[in-house]
Amino acid sequence: MATLQKIRTKAGLLVAIVIGVSLAAFILGDLIKGGSSVFQKNRLEVGVIDGESIQYPDFQKQVEELGEIFKQNYQTNQLDDNAWTQVREQAWQSTINKIVMGDVYEDLGIEISSDELFDMLQGANPHQIVQQIFRNPETGQFDRASVVRFLKNLETGVAQDQRVYWLNLEKQIVDERTQSKYANMVGKGLYVTSEQAQASATAGSKTVNFDYISLPHSTVKNDEVTVTEKDLKAYYNEHQNDYKQEQSRRVEYITYAVTPSEADYKDAEEWIEDIKSDFSKAQDNVQFVNSNSDVNFENVWNKKEDLPENIAAWVFDENAQVNDVFGPYAEGASFTLAKLHKSEMMPDSVEARHILLQVTTQAELIAAQALADSLKTMIDKGADFAKLARENSSDQGSAINGGDLGWFKRNQMVKPFEEVAFNNSTDSVTIVATQFGLHLIQTTKRGKLTPQVQVAYLTRNVVPSTKTYQNTYALASKFAGENTTKEEFDAAVATEKLTKRVANVGENERQIVGLENARQLIRAAYQAEVNDILQTTQESPIFELGDNFVIAVLTQASEEGIASFDEVKARVELAVVKEKKAELLVEKAKEALAGNSDLSAVATALNTDVQTANNITFNSFSIPGIGLEPSVIGTVSNLGVDKISAPIAGNNGVFVVMVTSENEAPGVNVASEKMRLAQTNSYRVASQVFTTHRNSVEIDDQRSKFY
Question: How far is CA 672 from CA 188, 193, 237, in A?
Fold first, then answer.
């Protein structure tokens, strides 16, 4: 069992296991009622990958299996919505990989034999995951015998879910090795020539200093250029690849926020006043707070300067007695009573050392307790604490210092550790358990005693009542009932001076900033027509998202591919205006350059200044003071010293440059550069081969119908 625990904790770091949320079973039942088998197949289609239909039951089974593995890996019984979203994404990517790459591997004869798998699990060349899991904690070396024992017990000695978990790890090891084989095969086909290496080494070793004149686009006013519809369409037709887009929907919406009313504030205040007497009489302050307060008791000690000003003045200036109650007082959207729980003279800091015995299973806990008792007995009889810490502590950071943690104040350690360290008498040893394991703690020095207190806060948050929800819903319902078209929606928003918000969402997105649980609104947007008021699954125009009632209209639907001219006309116009301004500036610069070989004279003619940039190489990403200007970098890298360039149309303006000096590092090592480029190619292959194959097939993702 200890081995499986190690699998869970280490595999989370070594294996990319990602997670998502399952659909309720009733959806599947609803989907399969009636209709022909072909119709049902289409209704249950989660997607189509390279012509292969992916059906919901098969895909959902894979999702649930991955979900169970995740639960085991992180020792949890429940996954939240974000976790399930990741599970579904992992399942989808795994499905794509299997279909897209399966035929590639088969055609090339790439496979993992049983002998090879044996070698990776328990042979001479174990996989790194296996090495990490089955490492001897005493020697730090891989323990092959432990692997053999574990695999012998796999069929009968472990629970079924743990067996499934291990088999999934085996599958990931096989998949990783298969992908690695293919990437290596492709990588072997790439070659770096000596000319490539020479050019790269030279480009990286030569630095250039240059002077330049900058003519920003902003120096030309918009009304100085003329842009026609013909210009716009011509530019759009020549640059259509710049306007590729993903599928998206544009939604405009208003919200009716459910916020506490004056009556809700009054109710909360009355509640806190009514309970004050009971709180004053309570014998167990912690239990009373945890049973009645909206905020649990916090087990912390505070000095005067750590407390809120009003509480500090009450406790320390008015000399409150233990069990005295202060308040109630308003604090934001809440009312609070404060009760002095404890008051003592305590050290403001302590110096301590510890021995940590890590525990991950019940069996390890029993062994650790026995060892802790033994070590404590030895220390009580005079054994060297520091020596025992160096030999036994799992906290290697402090073990090398004999377990010494130095001085620390309140609230710097986990609570059980802190309580022992501050309550221990000097040099006594106490054993305590925390989430890190068992600690033997010895307080070596105690700081100056100061008055410190614990305060029990009983808080009543002001929340909207049922009546408040009903009143807010009535407002939303009135708006929705009176405005059933986009035209009416827009007119009413303007008339009532409401705030209209806008969201652009992809089909599989789940969030809209400022709205909780927005997935249902996004799904509705993809089931509606442009200018429709969106409807819930119950055909209501009002979405209840967290503490907001939302009414929304679909204003734009963009499909995957090249955006239409009308959709991107504003962007096209900006690009054409920029291009026209650059043309004017280039002509202006050419006139100044005519018959002029002095850059300063050119700058004077253009009513600007000469500026300087230093240490620029061909591989530079940007130029200080200019920004991202690859055309300028390419020009100065090849211009030659003391030569003035022709006008350069850049990203931010037009430039004229003159190289003032070049410096080339001596002894360029072409062989080393060749090796570096080859290694870079190898890394690129590993990350890009799958992307290349994926982009070569058609993938229709329909998961949004179900999730």
Answer: 18, 12, 45
Position 400 pLDDT exceeds 80: yes
- pTM for this structure? 0.61
Q: How many helical (H) and strand (E) elements, i.e. helices and strands, does the chain have?
A: 25, 20
CA distance 639 to 656: 12
**pLDDT at position 139:** 65
> What CA–CA distance (Å, rounded) separates 524 from 534?
6
Phi, psi of 297, deg, nearest 5:
-60, 135
pLDDT attached to residue 41: 62
Q: Are strands 404-409 and 349-357 parallel, antiparallel or unpaired?
A: antiparallel
Contact 424, 442 (CB under 8 A): yes
Q: DSSP string covering 591-610, please?
A: HHHTT---HHHHHHHTT---
Q: Is 624 exposed, middle or buried (0-12, 13-18, 19+ CB in 10 A)?
A: exposed
Q: What is the mean pLDDT of the chain?
A: 85
pLDDT at 667 over 80: no
Task: Report which of 255, 455, 451, 445 is spatially closest to residue 342, judged by C-alpha positions.
Answer: 455
3-class secondary structure per residue, 557-593: EECCEECCHHHHHHHHHHHHHHHHHHHHHHHHHHHHH
Q: How many CB atoms lie within 10 A of CB 622?
A: 13
> Between these two residues, 665 and 255, which has the higher pLDDT value?
255
Spatial distance between the Cα atoms of 299 and 457, rounded to a whole number of angstroms: 11
Please state the rounded mean pLDDT for residues 445-468: 92
- Per-residue model confidence as pLDDT tens digits over 407-453: 998 878 888 898 888 888 888 899 988 888 889 999 998 888 889 89
| Residues in the chain, total | 707
pLDDT digits (tens, 9 = 90+) for 18-50: 333 333 333 344 444 444 455 556 788 888 998
Per the DSSP assignment, residues forming a β-bridge with 462 are none
Mean pLDDT of 107-119: 87
Q: Extract the tokens encoding 69.
A: 């593995």
Using alpha carbons, select from 414, 420, 424, 422 the residue that is nearest to residue 349. Answer: 422
C-alpha 269/C-alpha 264 separation (Å) is 9
Cis peptide upstream of residue 328 (ω within 30 degrees of 0): yes
Amino acid present at 118: F
Pick from 103, 101, 100, 63: which is nearest to 83 by CA?
63
- Which of 1, 205, 31, 7 lies closest to 121, judged by CA? 7
- Rounded to whole angstroms, what are the CA distances from 140 to 9, 134, 295, 419, 478? 17, 10, 46, 34, 70
The alpha-helical segments, DSSP class H, found in 507-561 are 519-525
Q: Is the pLDDT of residue 6 over 80?
A: no
Residue type, 378: M
Q: Which of 397, 422, 394, 398 is nearest to 408 (CA)?
A: 422
Residue with tokens 């005493």, as numbered in its chain: 138
Answer left, alpha or beta for residue 572, where phi above 0 means left and psi between -120 and 50 means alpha: alpha
CA 514 to chain centre: 18
What are the residues facing 453 on neighbouring strands? 302, 343
Secondary structure, 3-state, 362-406: HHHHHHHHHHHHHHHHHHHCCCCHHHHHHHHCCCHHHHCCCCEEE
- According to DSSP, the β-strands at 325-330 and 349-357 are unpaired
pLDDT digits (tens, 9 = 90+) for 268-299: 999 999 999 999 999 999 999 999 999 999 88
CA 14 distance to own-chain centroid: 18
Report the 10 Å Cβ neighbour count for 572. 22
Sign of the four-CA dihedral 600, 602, 608, 610: negative
Cα–Cα distance, 165 to 6 (Å, whole number)? 12
Q: What's the average model confidence in pLDDT over 333-360?
A: 90
pLDDT at res. 472: 96
